[in-house]
Design a protein that fits this description.
Blueprint: H1 2-11, E1 20-22, E2 34-36, H2 42-55, E3 60-63, H3 73-86, E4 87-92, E5 99-105, H4 118-128, E6 132-135, H5 139-142, H6 148-164
Parallel strand pairs: 1-2, 4-6
Antiparallel strand pairs: 3-5, 4-5
Length: 165
């Protein structure tokens, strides 16, 4: 799944640099920088990475978890374009409560809220910063793998697609 996300990011016209935040580099190609995740929490690791990127002059950040097997470059471009229009774009999960991706166009510190009810919490954080949230609903951004049942559904969809081909 990480390879699918990295391939989509590489193909996105709006993405100029891909950086992975992870405690290890195992499956990350050597050409892609890895920022160390100390293991404290995903939100802390993202805050640290965002701070470092802001210090380097970057004011546009896209967060894409590695569990989006159907993501496309066009969907990433749509997310980024939406983020550019209001300073913040979010792609909710299929249930409409979680966050599967976000685009932040701001030099302000952002309090990442991944976890339960993250969509609502991210929207509140964006509003607190004076950003105009845009919600982006696209199939590849909505499908994340959180459980064995999600993986089984994905494998079943792939199997059915092969039968139709």
């Amino acid at each position: 799944m990480l390879a699918a996300v990295l391939t989509a990011a590489e193909g996105a016209q709006t993405v100029h640099q891909t950086i992975v935040v992870s405690p290890e580099r195992d499956q990350v190609p050597a050409a892609i920088p890895v920022l160390a995740d100390t293991g404290e929490s995903l939100n802390a690791a993202l805050a640290q990475a965002h701070r470092m990127l802001r210090d380097l002059g970057c004011h546009e950040v896209v967060v894409l978890p590695a569990d989006l097997p159907r993501i496309t470059a066009a969907e990433i471009d749509a997310l980024v374009r939406a983020g550019r229009s209001g300073g913040f774009a979010i792609a909710p999960d299929a249930a409409g409560t979680g966050t599967n991706a976000l685009c932040l166009v701001s030099t302000q510190p952002f309090q990442f809220q991944f976890g339960p009810d993250s969509q609502r919490l991210h929207l509140l954080e964006a509003q607190r910063l004076g950003l105009t949230p845009q919600i982006v609903r696209l199939p590849g951004l909505a499908l994340d793998i959180d459980s064995p049942a999600d993986l089984e559904r994905l494998e079943e969809q792939q199997w059915r697609a092969r039968l139709r081909a």
